[in-house]
Amino acid sequence: MRVSKTMLGALLTLAGLIASAPAQAEILTFHARLDGKYGAEPTGSAATGKARIKVDTERKRVSVEMDVDGITTDALWDKLVAAPIGPIHFHKYATPAGGDSVLVLPLPYGADYRATKKGLRVTMKDYDYEAGARLLKSTLTFDDFVAAMRSGLVILNVHTDAFNPGEISGRVEQR
Fold first, then answer.
1. Which whole-number Å values give the CA distances from 158 to 2, 135, 141, 167, in the listed order?
2. Which residues have a Cβ under 8 Å from the Cβ of 87 and sit 6 or more positions away?
3. Residue 59, CA distances (Å) to 43, 104, 174 in order
4. Would you give the DSSP letter of residue 117?
5. Of the candidates 118, 119, 121, which has an alpha carbon nearest to the alpha carbon of residue 75?
6. What domains does the chain contain, in order, with CATH numbers?
7. Which of 84, 87, 125, 166 has the greatest number of CB atoms lying within 10 Å of its CB?
8. Per-residue pLDDT tens digits of the chain, which is 175 residues long
């Protein structure tokens, strides 16, 4: 088969455009259901929560929409409300059954936290993973964070004055 120079030029131009096109961001969606029955230290708390987490793999940004029933903003652990890491954050565990954990990504307390009739709501949009990880001095790279989330090794935890280690928590899962 013989290809004309014009057709070959057009094909090469098209191939170059495809190769130079920016990669599409992959937006991963995760969910967590939180309660007082889960985690290393179950509390028996009647409080519950649910979170939807979106991760932009190209921009390395994390968005969180979280509703908690049974815990008010006033009940959040005062020490962590005042700290840069905030009273709600992600932990990465050694195994799905638990074990050693490291703090991974905080949800710093501030305007993204709002009181609701039943408890509180946290809405963080396009949170820079690397900036958040620096607050915790976390050594977990963004790629390791995503891999841990995909593997079910990440827990979302809500710390309160009544239960400093965490009143409710839940495994982050991809659906």
1. 67, 17, 23, 6
2. 76, 77, 80, 81, 109, 158, 159, 160
3. 37, 18, 19
4. S
5. 119
6. 25-174 (2.60.40)
7. 87
8. 555 555 444 444 444 444 444 455 689 999 999 999 976 678 999 999 999 999 999 999 999 999 999 999 999 999 999 998 999 999 998 877 677 888 899 999 999 999 999 999 999 999 999 999 998 888 899 999 999 999 999 999 999 999 999 999 999 999 7
